């Protein structure tokens, strides 16, 4: 008896807070006009995607005191956009990144419970942390949280939010059969949390939402992040999009679930993915190269190397060889609001590896940066991309993918029109929504079950 085919999960990321956006492309539209978000959401829903995703940048990234050239300036608030999209969509899930470092559990829980009501059960929360003082300058607790404490706060933040969501759950809560409204009881919404991070008590004023709790996403790839996801998340974002790396990550994270009393189907692995789609594989490769040239200008290439060298490299020719000077040791000062490998590895070792790679391939600075930051996960015709996605999912390198087109809002249109029908023909992707909530789309049980 053959093993049934896994069903593929697909989602769409409206780009903006990342390194893939080409906001200067003539096809790129506004990142603040609501029409852009509506177009993107309608495309995702027409293609029967599980959800759309909005990241959140709490401060514009800077390089040597100037706004980083790939950042999109003027991005509106995530919650506001998702709440507005709830009114113009009916099925597609609405996922937003909300920071656990610079917010409070009551505020965030109230917002997500409200969004779940407004969308009839389609809300999801990507729980993230922040540790850098640069971002913290925008908040009253600027820079107070050491890096090693960020997950301790995140874990208690999420646990506290769950207590708030669940405070309306139980036999004491009932609906009036005549009016459909909730009956008031003495215990409805009552909560009390006394912990190291939060000491709050009161009454939560949003009744139990359709999903009970929003779907929880997590994006950390560190040891702490993986363990946090295995214990708490419904899905984890991943950057591992090749077969071997994906399978290793898949085995590792799914293998952690049992010690938290969970089964493999209770956590989905969803790598972020980009694509270059054309009529033929050759045309797609040419398109991908053109996209990379737009993403990595000469100036961008130099700024990228400055993350490692920690010194001004503006005097170097981006079409020339790598700097012959050694990186400046110490804390990173040029790039602000961007995580870099300097936090984890000796920059001199990184520089040595980059020089060896450039020499072996005879690459200039710009060519090297293009080579090491290549992000087109899927390159080819619709047939090639559909086959590749299906192969990765069936071989347990992922449960699906979160697609981030390099332009918005129309960058998803061709994928929806050409690749999705091929996946449907293979019987590995839905032709119609079978449920109405995001939990149903993702195959996740209701927390009350």
Automatic annotation (TrEMBL):
Keyword Zinc-finger: no
InterPro entries: Diverse_substr_monoxygenases (IPR051260), Luciferase-like_dom (IPR011251), Luciferase-like_sf (IPR036661), NTA_MOA (IPR016215)
EC category: oxidoreductase
GO molecular function: monooxygenase activity
Family: Belongs to the NtaA/SnaA/DszA monooxygenase family.
Keywords: Flavoprotein, FMN, Monooxygenase, Oxidoreductase
Residue ranges of every copy of the Luciferase-like domain listed in the record: 24-394
Organism, scientific name: Streptomyces evansiae
Record EC number: 1.14.-.-
Protein name: NtaA/DmoA family FMN-dependent monooxygenase
Keyword Oxidoreductase applies: yes
